[in-house]
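Q: Can someone sanity-check these two? First one:
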Amino acid sequence: MLVRLLLISVVLVLAACTTAPPKNINNVCEIYDEYYDWYIAADAVYERWRIPHHVTMAFIHQESKFVDDARPPWEWFLWIIPTGRASSAFGYAQALDGTWYEYQKQTENWGADRDDFEDAVDFIGWYNHKTLIRNKVSPHDAYSLYLAYHEGQGGFSRGTYKNKPWLLRIAKKVKKRSDMYRNQLGNCQKELDDSRFWRSVFG
């Protein structure tokens, strides 16, 4: 009985630590109104890595739909035997184990967690900034940035995405959502900035 109560307590604690996805993930103004600390985090990404809000948030939407512990689905043998997940991707940014370790090492942010929104968007900023430098891509070019995010900067340079029509379709979706988020921000960013002090204090 005691063990059962302890297990229930652990489950409840873990559930309490989970951040629910925003109610409307198709409107970045509503996302930021619901989670103002996400606006602060994405703004810090722009200040540090020069990647604008609309690109960062479009990446998060595509990778995880704002689910903090998102993972690739299980793969099955003969539809009955689980063989593991397709990759080690995890969290808001669907970062792989090795790439996340590289991020931690280069930024010295050893306490970063993939299911923490602030760390995840900083990772996206870091990775895309590397693409800006190596591949000379515009920080507003969500289409090219996403291709490099998926294929790596080297793969992007070699054009490995050209024979992946499914990936090109996804990159177009990311660009479309980035453009939509940018237009939405035009209607609310001033208000978000003007209320920074009060929202930072009172939420």
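And here is the second, same format, sequence then tokens:
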Amino acid sequence: MARDSRHGGPTRELSDVVSVVAPGMTILGDVMCDGTVRVEGKVEGSIKATKSVVVGKDGRITGDIETQDVVVAGTVIGTVAGASRVELQETCKIEGDIRSRRVKLDEGGQIEGRLHMTAKAADEKPTGSPHKGASPSIQPPKPQRAAGRN
């Protein structure tokens, strides 16, 4: 570990930094962070973090989350995109789409939205389906002609 020459102590990597939105605190606007953001208060705006976003039991985010790993125990109204992993704990309430390669949902967690789980799910943008609830890759079978008829 490198040393900080000004203070004589070890330096920290930016990915090790944890920024906290404390209980009783509200942030109005988007948040961008190198490292991890832990939300115990409220954020009214989107959050982008290089490492992870953790939403505590009493935390509330009204906006999108975009990061590597996401853990939600509180409330999120917006899209949750974890490039690597999303963990939804039993006390979570999500109103919006979830995009990730891996998702863990504890019993009792509430989700109102779509779940997108593919190797590139967190990187893809939402696209509208031509038929609500139908997969665009499924086609109805074509009628076959009876033998000998024209």
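A (reply): Looked at the second one. Residues 23 and 81 are 24 Å apart (CA to CA). The longest strand covers residues 80-88.
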